[in-house]
Amino acid sequence: MTKILLKSATLVNEGKEFVSDVLIEGKRIIKIASSILVDGIVEEINCEGLHLLPGCIDDQVHFREPGLTHKATIQTESRAAVAGGITSFMEMPNTVPNTLTQELLEAKYQRASEVSPANYSFFMGASNDNYEEVMRTNIENVCGVKIFMGSSTGNMLVDNTSTLEHLFANVPMLIATHCEDEGTIRTNLEIYKEKYGEDIPMSAHPLIRSAEACYISSSKAVDLAKKNNTRLHILHISSGIETALFRNDIPLEQKRITAEACIHHLWFSAADYTEKGAWIKWNPAVKTEVDRAQIWEALLDNRIDVIATDHAPHTIEEKQQKYLQAPSGGPLVQHALLAMLDASANGKIPLVRVVEKMAHAVAICFQVKDRGFIREGYFADLVLVNLNRKTTITKESLLSQCAWSPFEGTTFSASIEKTFVNGQLVFDEGKLTGVQSGERLLFNR
């Protein structure tokens, strides 16, 4: 069995930074010590000056397969993910067809097993009329159930009150929600159509998909969860007012209601629509600088628990359309960790907390088995980063199929040097190795 010895790396793990060796055998970490001597054949990698992090776990991506493969595929986007230090992903059900049956869900798992260099899990989708299918979901090998309480595609908007009550009362696993109130958004949109016709400016997006729309829906989800003791996870918090819905007075392991912040809501603000336009059009919308500051505050004081990407690629041609036609979403998995390392270098967040929010806390929230930490016996999902080597994002460096990024032209302060998935090197100094070692995530439930 192959052994890999990582020598003299600076580990960033469980709130500490320290220099150590790490020995990998097969898929797992078998020893962590200040100095490790190994008998027999071993591949030794000198990690002096490099920081070793647990691989990031992204709990919200849209990889577009099946049905939307002109935008992206599981293969292309998982490759971009490992190039960015994301070793595990959880993918959403609003593909075509929507993932509303167990058979369609398992088809995704089968496809990922054939092509993904990253570990994978897929959410089961809920609709107004597939309750029985939802209840067949295996809590040990599926990350959760996704409920669109707004901004849905296909048949996935769950707006029937009795259905919501039934799901929140009875689903025995984590429910993840997209929260925007459709009635409020429709009313706002009509106002801007009346004012601008077909030429609504992109800067109106956070006014149409407003903080009020988010809060109405998020507070409804929280109320339902409190009433039913549901394990609720609210995705992509985008407004400051929503942060008051969450608590930080108990350990994460004890929380029944958790929340996620996304890279774009931490990095961009409404001031960026002038330059970026549709390239930063997401649902929920990137909002004001005040909202961004309040999301950061909630992230740092643990009202918001995890950082994700909501990676959702569209083609360049689609994004170049006018406001009403340009779809929401964009590619982020390749640069999410780089963005957070940059934020750390600029003093916005300690490095140990980047690791906490992008690896440890995600593993705790979802009860991921044997991942998310650098521990003996855990899977060797690891990323080596160089905090002193800059990375400039060029079009030629992009791995997402859509071939654009809102970060094009940005120079980050760090670089991703190597990524290991299940003990195998999948990304090495700017290049994919071609190794496909991703596995289905399992959960301690």
Automatic annotation (TrEMBL):
Gene Ontology CC: one annotated term: cytoplasm
GO MF assignments: allantoinase activity; metal ion binding
Domain Amidohydrolase-related: 52-426
Species this protein is from: Fluviicola taffensis (strain DSM 16823 / NCIMB 13979 / RW262)
UniProt xrefs under NCBIfam families: PRK09236.1
PROSITE patterns the UniProt entry points to: DIHYDROOROTASE_2 (PS00483)
Enzyme Commission number(s): 3.5.2.5
Keyword line: Hydrolase, Metal-binding
Signal peptide: none
UniProt cofactor(s): Zn(2+)
InterPro entries (alphabetical): Amidohydro-rel (IPR006680), DHOase/Allantoinase_Hydrolase (IPR050138), Dihydroorotase_CS (IPR002195), Metal-dep_hydrolase_composite (IPR011059), Metal_Hydrolase (IPR032466)
Function: Catalyzes the reversible cyclization of carbamoyl aspartate to dihydroorotate.
The family this protein is said to belong to: Belongs to the metallo-dependent hydrolases superfamily. DHOase family. Class I DHOase subfamily.
Top EC class of this enzyme: hydrolase
Cited CDD domains: DHOase_IIb
GO BP terms: purine nucleobase catabolic process
Protein name (record): Allantoinase
